[in-house]
Specification:
This protein has 323 residues and is an all-alpha fold. It contains 13 helices and three strands, in the order E-H-H-H-E-H-H-H-E-H-H-H-H-H-H-H. Helix 4 runs antiparallel to helix 9. The protein starts with 7 loop residues before the first strand and ends in a 5-residue tail after the last helix.
């Protein structure tokens, strides 16, 4: 087969009429714009409000920023494919999409692990919390989150890019690493081993989260104040973890065992759930449940425009950036 750089992949088409695809385009565009809006609203609210410059909100900003990256790795190509006669993507474009998706998934897991650790310190060791989680440590944890995620993604892309390809058809509406590996006509042992390493790594992170929650539940049962903190900050975190993990699991199962059938278009859309639902739901869950954020957002939107502009300008020049 020709050099990989010359390959053009054929993605799974939605196999529908032009009118329906145009309707899907409008729905997808509105969903993408709303996802960007709710995430940016939460990020800007935390950045401009001095009282929200605490570790939990800074980690939440990072989670929302990562959600924007995840959504942006999926929606633009989907929107382009809905308006095109054929849903194709270049080899470089496919690897780029896989890289961004990889970074999003790994960063999401690591961010949720750090947030669980932060809640453990805040609830189980409240007196030592300011010393255990200073600004320098928050910045270091964020740096390690992104460096760790980028390193995992780079290794995965290198292992995939070395494979010679014998096929062109990808059985999904977007590129995933496993779908490209299945197109290879050579030994994929290295990719499989690395896949098991990633599974072990992120299962270990899930284990750390569960250990943290064991201590959190015990602490919340002892004191009413801890119970309130647990409900306000830990329940949204747990909901976020469950939504993301279940969405990602469906994608993994579909990539390996799905495909075909009369409901293939629906199956493809559900397989992309981990790129659609968590980025949309996460800021809504936290925005509704965290009183400090909810009250500040309501205050900003109910404020007079002129006063809001002055507040934003003052915040932009006087407050530190939260990411």
């Amino acid at each position: 087969m020709e050099n990989n750089s010359e390959v053009v992949f054929v993605l799974q088409d939605l196999n529908d009429s032009l009118t329906n695809r145009q309707m899907y385009f409008v729905v997808a565009l509105m969903s993408y714009l709303f996802t960007i809006f709710v995430n940016l609203t939460l990020i800007v609210t935390v950045c401009l409000e001095r009282t929200l410059h605490e570790p939990i909100y800074i980690f939440l900003c990072n989670l929302c920023f990562n959600g924007i990256c995840g959504a942006s790795s999926f929606y633009p190509k989907l929107l382009h494919g809905l308006l095109s006669d054929s849903n194709v993507i270049t080899y470089a474009g496919c690897l780029t999409q896989i890289f961004v998706v990889y970074c999003y998934v790994f960063c999401e897991f690591t961010s949720l692990t750090i947030m669980a650790y932060d809640r453990y310190l805040a609830i189980c060791k409240p007196l030592q919390y300011p010393m255990l989680m200073p600004v320098q440590r928050v910045a270091l944890l964020l740096l390690l989150t992104w460096c760790f995620s980028l390193l995992e993604a780079i290794i995965g892309i290198i292992l995939t890019a070395r494979l010679p390809l014998c096929k062109r058809h990808i059985n999904q509406i977007f590129c995933t690493n496993w779908e490209v590996v299945k197109l290879s006509c050579s030994d994929t042992t290295g990719n499989n081993i690395y896949g098991f390493v990633l599974i072990f790594t992120h299962f270990s992170q899930t284990g750390l989260i569960l250990v943290s929650y064991t201590h959190l539940v015990r602490a919340s049962l002892r004191l009413a104040s801890n119970r309130k903190k647990f409900i306000q900050t830990c329940v949204p975190h747990l909901a976020t973890l469950l939504i993301f993990a279940s969405s990602l699991m469906f994608n993994s199962i579909y990539s390996r065992y799905g495909g075909g059938g009369t409901l293939q278009a629906l199956q493809n859309l559900l397989a992309a759930e981990f790129l659609v639902v968590p980025p949309l739901i996460n800021p809504i869950i936290y925005g509704i449940n965290l009183h400090q954020i909810r009250s500040r957002i309501i205050h900003n939107f109910s404020h007079k425009p002129s006063n809001l502009i002055n507040t934003c300008l003052h915040g932009a020049f006087s407050l530190p950036v939260c990411l």
